[in-house]
Amino acid sequence: MVNGIQNGSLSTRLGIPMIYGIDAVHGHNNVYKATIFPHNVGLGVTRDPVLIKKIGDATALEVRATGIQYVFAPCIAVCRDPRWGRCYESYSEDPKIVEAMTEIITGLQGDISGNSRKGIPYVAGKNKVAACAKHYVGDGGTSRGINENNTLINYRGLLNIHMPAYHDSIVKGVSTVMVSYSSWNGKKMHANHFLVTDYLKNKLKFRGFVISDWLGIDKITSPPHSNYSYSIQAGVGAGIDMIMVPFNFTEFIDVLHYQVKNDIIPESRIDDAVERILRVKFVMGLFENPLADLSLVNQLGSEEHRQLAREAVRKSLVLLKNGKSAEKPLLPLPKKAANILVAGSHADNLGYQCGGWTITWQGAGGNNLTVGTTIFDAVKQTIDPATNVFYKESPDPTFVKSNNFSYAIVIVGEPPYAETFGDSLNLTIPEPGPSTITNVCESIQCVVVLITGRPVVIQPYLSKIDALVAAWLPGTEGQGVADLLFGDYGFTGKLARTWFKTVNQLPMNVGDKNYDPLFPFGFGLTTNPT
C-alpha cells in the first residue's frame, strides 16, 4: 500500500516523495503480529532511558518493515489528572521522568551527533523513522482531565510542567511536533501563533515541521468545521506546516489557494511550511530511498523484540502490597502447589491486556486481535507441571470455597479505550471486577493484578487483598507478569503516578500542599528473585 502511494507521488511533475505517518505509540500497534510494548504509563515506572531507547529502536524497525517512514510518537504529555482518557499515553505526572523518556526519540530516529545545530531534525537512515513530539502543549493539564479541553495554568507553570520535554526532544533532533487539540487559558493551541511560531519555532529554534492533529484545525471552531475558512487562516497563520485533512482535501486546497491569492495568508508562510517539510524529507534520505526495504520484513514481531517487551513488562510492574502483614509476604508465589485459581475478566484476554491503540483506535477485547501471550497462558507456562490450575472468569463464592485452593491470582481492570472515550469522572473498575475480588479474596489468599491505564479506585477492597500489583497495560508479552509473580525476577518498579484514595482528591500530584495519597509517587515494594 505504502509503495503504491509512493509510486504515485514519484510519478508527479516534481517527483517529490510523500511521507507516510502512523500512530505507533506502543510498538507498531496497528499491525497484526507486531510486538505490542507496554503503554507509556508503565514505561515511566521503569525510569530506564536505555530500555526506552531500545524500544524506540525496535519500533522503528517494525514500522520500516511495513514500508512506513514516520511515527506519531512519542506522546510527551504530563498527565496531571488520571480522569483524562489519554493518561496511559503519558509517562508520568512528573516532568523530570517525561524528560528522561524522550530518549525514545534517539531510538526511533538514531543518535544525533554532538556538534549538530540545535533544532535541526535528524533521522539516521532507512532503518529509522521520523518521530513526532506531541501534543504541543499542555495536553495533560486540562481541567478535570477532560480530553481536548482547557489547560488553566500561568505561563511559568506551562514552562515548568508541560514544556521541558519539548526542549529535550528538540535537542535530540525530533523531526516533527504535533499540536494539541486542547486550549491554553481559553486559546486553542491550533490557533496559538505565540506558542507555535514565536516560542517553538523562533525561541526553541525548532527547524522540523509542525503538524496538526486529526481534524485539528476543524476543531478550532465550535462546532467543528463551522467556519472552515477561519480555521485554515488561524491554523496555517499560527504556524502549522502540515495539516491532517482526513476527508475533504479538495475543500482545504481550494480555500488555502484562495487565501494565498488574496494575501490573507502570506506566501512567505507557505514557503516556511514547504521548506520545513522538505528539510525533514531530505534529512531522512527519503529522496534517495523512497520505497520500502523488503529485507526488513522479518523484523515485525521478532523474537528479539518480544523479549525486549517482556523485559519492559517486568520493569514496569509496581508491587503495592505484599501480605496482610510485612512478616508474611505472599509474593513470590510457589510454582508448586496442589490447586491454584486464576480468575478475572483480564486473566485470559490479550486485547484487554494491550489496551487502546491496539489494531484499532479504541482497542478491543478477546484473543483474536493479534499474537501474544495472555497472563493466564503465562501462568500455565511458569508453574510446576504437577500444579493443577483452574481458570474461572468470575467465580462464585461457593466454587472458591469448595476447591481447596492454595492461592488465587485475580486479574481485573479497565476495558480498552482511547482519547475521549476513556475520560472518567469516577475511575472505578467495572463489574465483574470488584465482585471477583470480593468473592475470591474473602475466602482464600489472593494476589490482585490490576490491568489499567491509570490509578483506579481500589481502597474499598484493599483490606481483603493479600497482595496487589499494578500492571498497567502491559501489551502482548504477558509472560513478563508471570516472571515476577513466581519470582524468576524481582519487583523493582516505583510509581510514576500518585495513587489516590478517592476521586474527590483529584487533581493531586507529588509536591502538592494537601498530598494525602493511598500510595505516594515513587512507592513500590521490592522482592528478591527466588
From TrEMBL:
Gene3D superfamilies on file: Glycoside hydrolase family 3 C-terminal domain, Glycoside hydrolase, family 3, N-terminal domain
Main EC class the enzyme belongs to: hydrolase
Gene Ontology MF annotations: beta-glucosidase activity
Catalytic activity: Hydrolysis of terminal, non-reducing beta-D-glucosyl residues with release of beta-D-glucose
Annotated Glycoside hydrolase family 3 C-terminal domain residues: 317-526
Keywords for the protein's UniProt record, in alphabetical order: Glycosidase, Hydrolase, Signal
EC code(s) of this entry: 3.2.1.21
Keyword hit for Transcription: no
Biological processes per GO annotation: glucan catabolic process
Organism domain of life: Eukaryota
InterPro entries for the chain: Cellulose_Degrad_GH3, GH, Glyco_hydro_3_C, Glyco_hydro_3_C_sf, Glyco_hydro_3_N, Glyco_hydro_3_N_sf
Glycoside hydrolase family 3 N-terminal domain location: 4-280
Family per similarity comment: Belongs to the glycosyl hydrolase 3 family.
Name of the protein this chain belongs to: beta-glucosidase
Species, as recorded: Vigna radiata var. radiata (Mung bean)
